[in-house]
Amino acid sequence: MRAITIFFDSLNARFLPPYGGTDSLEGFEKLSTQSVVFDSHYVGSLPCMPARRELHTGRYNFLHRCWGPIEPFDDSVPQILKEHGVYTHLVSDHAHYWEDGGCTYHTRYNTWEGFRGQEGDMYKGQVANPQIPEGALGRMKHSWRQEWVNRSYIKDANESPLYKVFEAGLEFIETNHKEDNWFLQIEPFDPHEPYFLPYDEEEDEIEDSYTGPFFDWPNYGTSDQYTPEQIEHVRHLYRRLVKRCDRRLKKVLDLMDKYDMWKDTMLIVTTDHGFLLGEHGWMGKNRMPTYNDIARIPFFFHDPRAVEHDGKRAAHLTQTIDIAPTLLEFFNIDIPESMQGRPLSYQSNNRKGGLFGLHGGHINVTDGRYVYMRAPVDPNDKNLFNYTLMPTHIYSLFTPEELQDMELVEPLSFSKECKVLKIRALKPSHNTYQHTLGDFLFDLETDSEQKNNLIGSHPELVTQMQSLMVALMKETDAPEEAYLRYGLNR
User: Fold this and answer.
1) How far apart are CA 422 and CA 411, in angstroms?
2) Per-residue model confidence (pLDDT) at position 433
């Protein structure tokens, strides 16, 4: 048996034809006929590396820790597969793997290939300032300058990290399609911003009437920082980038056709989260409530043991944490007790609800119909900690200031009898606005676009969703102070 996971970054379901998108995307359309399309698949922890920790461990990350590496006590699926004789290989251009906050993920695989140059990756060394279009708009973060250095080395689409990742994935399949017992993870950073689109001779140009300042890297925050024309322009660029992802996906599907791999190879295609492009008055992720545009993500699942379900849709609630146990079950490997996820199938897994969110932001819960978002009672309280043995942020180690009052505390239920460091978070990560916006309650059955907040008109439903939230928090061994921070009765 073999398995392939294609894990995009920031892929919005609403742009894909199987989820109502209007663009022609041959790869995703073909995929929807050769897999089960899940309509209620949710994220767990956001953003990038928290989601990937869930991909490895099959349990929620965001209640105990922000962004960080795999922990010494974590059960990592690629590592477990490797230890049971399943060859594991990763191909990715996700630059966060090579930084302090993600440095222990890729080394869990037998082998891995990394491709450089995405989103200001500290890659090419150039002392002279790069050429940047005059008046360029965008997310002028610390890597803005480096992004423009890197772009000067990418002359066309074939040299782009996206194309190199898929070519490496295709090469692995070509080399190993006759072999048994392997797992391949193809993980492109695209269609994550910036929406850099080097020349592709195969691409049919999509008309774009935009004539304003150069703009392909939206800043996170309220969308009123941009004009309607600029918002439409970045949507246009995003659609073009999704088309490029789609053509690369199609190549994988065609290779599976060529070698008749559908009969013995599991295929999972999904993403870590979505991205707002002006919807709900917001641009980006992390800063705003985690609307379904971000939280409910595309998920395609082909199980060679149940091909009769391909082309169908599944409505039951599933999450990112379900991928890890699904892979272990497929390769007949026992699922560790620490995993909260459940093996996926066309049939319901009887999940009563799912949590999702960012460390320090809203805690969100859904039962498939309702979504309840609970904000901190006091965003300035001190009831936020990281529980870790790997104290790193995205780009740096924890500072001495952060570590001065850390404690070594009793083991967590999933830390394998290891005591852990309890380190106060001096401020929430990634959450500029969430804590100031209050609570939300949405009925997805009558309000799929989440425009009508029911929080003040349905107190009995709020109580019901709070009870579900608390029950799921207990199951994940949420720290005691989390109940205080969010004003929840444990």
Assistant:
1) 11
2) 65
- Sequence-distant (6+) residues with CB within 8 A of 261 are 2, 173, 177, 255
Residue 454: phi and psi, rounded to 5, are -95, 10
The whole-angstrom distance between residue 90's C-alpha and the CA centroid of its chain comes to 16
Cis peptide leading into 191, omega within 30 of 0? yes
Q: Note the pTM of the prediction, 2 decimals.
A: 0.97
Reading the block at residue 306, the tokens are 């149940």
Q: State the sign of the Cα–Cα–Cα–Cα dihedral 162, 165, 166, 168.
A: positive
**Confidence band of 204 (pLDDT split at 50, 70, 90):** confident
Residue 71 has a CB neighbour count (10 Å cut-off) of 24
Sheet holding 385-388, edge to edge: 385-388, 420-424, 407-409
Question: CA quadruple 355, 444, 38, 282: dihedral positive or negative?
Answer: negative
How far is 203 from 209, CA to CA, in rounded Å? 18
Residue 266 zone, left/alpha/beta (φ > 0; ψ -120 to 50; rest)? beta
pLDDT at 419: 98
User: In 3D, which of 392, 395, 314, 389 has the Cα closest to residue 349?
Assistant: 314
pLDDT digits (tens, 9 = 90+) for 418-471: 999 999 998 776 665 666 789 999 999 999 999 999 999 999 999 999 999 999
Give the Cα-Cα-Cα angle 369, 373, 378 (nearest 5 degrees): 165
Q: Are strands 41-42 and 318-319 parallel, antiparallel or unpaired?
A: parallel
**Residue whose entry in the numeric block shows the structure tokens 């150039």:** 126
- DSSP label at residue 206: P
- Beta bridge partners, 42, equal 296, 319
Mean pLDDT of the chain: 96
Taking the C-alpha atoms of residue 398 and residue 471, their distance in angstroms, rounded to an integer, is: 32
Helix (H, G, I), strand (E, B) or coil at 3: strand
End-to-end CA distance of the chain: 44
Asked if 129 and 152 touch (Cβ cutoff 8 Å), the reply is no
